[in-house]
Amino acid sequence: MRALTWHGKHDVRVDTVDDPEILNPRDAIIKVTSTAICGSDLHLYDGYIPTMQAGDILGHEFMGEVVETGPKSTLKKGQRVVVPFTIACGSCYHCGKHQYSACDNANPADNQDIAQTLYGQPMSGLFGYSHMTGGYAGGQAEYVRVPFSDVGPIVIPDGIDDDKVLFLSDILPTGWQAAEFAQIEPGDTVAVWGCGPVGLFCVQSAFLMGAERVIAIDHFPRRLELAAKFGAETLNFEESKTYEALMEMTGGIGPDACIDAVGLEAHGLFVDNVWDQIKVSTFTGTDRTHSIRQAIIACRKGGRVSMPAVYGGFVDKFPLGAFMEKGLTLKTGQTHVQHYLPGLLAAIMEGKIDTTFLISHRMALSEAPEGYKIFHDHQNDVTKVVLKPGLDRVAA
Amino acid sequence: MADLRDDAPITTSKRSDGIIDATENLLEAKGHSLVGRSVTINRPRAELYAYWRDFTKLPSFMDNVERVDLIDDTTSHWVVKAPGGKTVEWDAVITEERPDELIAWASTEGADVPNSGRIDFRDAGDRGTVVTATILYDPPAGFIGKVIAKMFQREPAIQARRDLRRFKQLMETGEIATAARTHKQLKEETA
Ligand SMILES: NC(=O)c1ccc[n+]([C@@H]2O[C@H](COP(=O)([O-])OP(=O)(O)OC[C@H]3O[C@@H](n4cnc5c(N)ncnc54)[C@H](O)[C@@H]3O)[C@@H](O)[C@H]2O)c1
Ligand SMILES: [Zn+2]
Ligand SMILES: [Zn+2]
Predict the structure, then answer these.
(1) Taking every annotated instance into account, which residue ranges of this chain make up the domain Alcohol dehydrogenase-like N-terminal (chain A) (predicted)?
(2) Which of A14, A32, A149, B153 reaches 20 to 30 Å from B18, CA-CA?
């Protein structure tokens, strides 16, 4: 089959690799119909994530048709499914508590050592996201082996277009969980750093959860425009001073809840950020954390900070004093996707949530390297790239 | 010294004489290196004990164990992978056994890698069962053997941790997680 493989910083290629096979009883093989490039993939593309190996197949947002099942899979051939990016066994203590991204068993035993050393306890497996989280082949490919297929994938009723449900795999539940973690109360003002796909779903979710005002922060006019369409007030950090603006926009109080939906790619023309960038790119240590610093400083006393943004290592100049003195709460984590799927699918089918507005580019799988390049270089216009392996089959 | 003692398991001790204390728990001590590792498994104690007690099944999750043959009710013969495509072998006898609770063993005279140890199964309420492996062993060919073994990832401490994780996976999910994509890759991984 054809698959998008990682070879190093800014070097991804479409290669021919062996087709996946059923290896465990609960496996299924999915023929991919749609697969997206995620902001998290850009961290890999930029070489920020350790334990990548040349030839790794990327992609963790995908859906498709079931073409093969192991004896313990509950899926049936021909079903259309969306696959969560977090791989979870469904039977461990954490899965029992719906903390799917903390699953004990989905990360192969040998790969757990790295995360155990770095984080104290290993996390679950993820598709297409380095060897620390399992080394699983990802979904930017024609076919994927999906382990624990009786727990993860959600079956999509016929007649619903891929574009409407694809984002159940990651960014929609991620935006939703982040808003839930912000513990929004009626009348709240919520500030969201980053109007990428995750931030935009945070904006939508925050309003659905009763926020009175949402202030969306970015520097790309097109992305801010999308946030404004959902009713958010916008703050362009190249135009205005973020902290000062937030304080004035909230009558000197600060936002009740702050969501960091930026992560490792945080931009900011500040000394601390440049220093972070040098250190991350040379693997000497700390993550780029400009947005989370701002979120903590801006947040009102006793407020909540939610951090869906991905960080991998250590942090310098974390405003721990402000965090403590103001009595803030911080909630974060990889998304427990499986937990949110039934509710969010229902919300999509009832028309309460629209996800299609996000897709700016649809491309063939063979064009994936170009997709990465434009998503990386032209974030203003390229809000989301969806790859359709079927387009290659049509062309062939 | 004595008043510095705490309630932490002896296998996590910073003191070198921790081994002596650990050894006191074993009827028979073979070897001078100590490995201790616990894992919590979301299954009943009796089920875990029963699976483990059938030694012929152990290679299903112990990657470096090629084969276990039963000689009689308490004696078994172990064939274990060693660096460089070699194998090491020994006979082990059960030195103590309490159903659903404890299995202790010691290798017999002439073992390639003298070893002894115990597997404890303790109730952990609604979290299932805590399984603790405590193993004493003599690294093959002393220090050099250990260095080589470490290079080959067959160092017993790492191996024990990974084996326990695989045991947990098998018991909780019915399978052992792998990121392989093809049978060929899977075979290479477990070779
Ligand atoms: N927790 C999870 O399970 C999970 C899942 C998916 C994605 N993520 C993470 O969420 C984050 C966002 O993902 P995405 O797909 O939306 O990424 P993206 O790169 O498309 O969007 C990030 C946005 O942040 C903006 N930005 C950069 N610096 C900023 C600053 N200082 N202040 C305000 N905005 C700034 C950028 O202009 C961009 O629009 C990433 O870190 C990603 O890894 C986490
Ligand atoms: Zn993603
Ligand atoms: Zn689990």
Answers:
(1) 25-153
(2) B153
Burial class (CB in 10 A: 0-12, 13-18, 19+), A21: middle
Residues with CB in 5 Å of ion ligand 3:
A 88-89, 92, 95, 103, 105
Mean pLDDT (chain B, rounded)? 85
Q: Which amino acid is at A123?
A: M
Q: Is residue A193 in contact with ligand 1, taking CB distance under 6 Å? A: yes
Q: Is B146 on the interface with A (CB under 8 A)?
A: no
Domain boundary among A296, A314, A332: A332
Which of A285, A300, A332 is a domain's end point? A332
Q: Is B44 helix (H, G, I), strand (E, B) or coil?
A: coil
Check whether residue A40 and residue A138 sit in a common domain: yes
CATH fold of B28-176: Alpha-D-Glucose-1,6-Bisphosphate; Chain A, domain 4 (3.30.530)
The answer to whether residues A106 and A88 touch, using CB atoms and an 8 Å cutoff, is yes
Using the beta-carbon criterion (under 8 Å), do A25 and B181 form an inter-chain contact? no
pLDDT in tens, B104-163: 999 999 988 888 999 999 999 999 999 999 988 877 665 556 655 555 455 677 888 899
The chain A residue lying nearest B178, using CA atoms, is: A108
Domain that holds residue A141: 2-170+336-395
Say how many Å lie between the CA of residue A42 and the centre of ligand 1.
Answer: 10
- Give the tens place of pLDDT for each residue, A7-35: 999 999 999 999 999 999 999 999 999 99
Residue of A84, A87, A69 whose CA lies nearest to A135: A87
> CATH number, domain at A59?
3.90.180.10
Q: Is A360 buried (19+), middle (13-18) or exposed (0-12) by CB count in 10 A?
A: middle
pLDDT mean over A224-241: 95
How many CB atoms lie under 10 A from the CB of residue B51? Answer: 16
Residues A253 and A279 placed together within one structural domain of the fold: yes
Write the ipTM: 0.89
Tokens of B147: 């260095």
pLDDT at B143: 56
Strand, helix or coil for residue A132: coil
Q: How many domains does chain A have?
A: 2
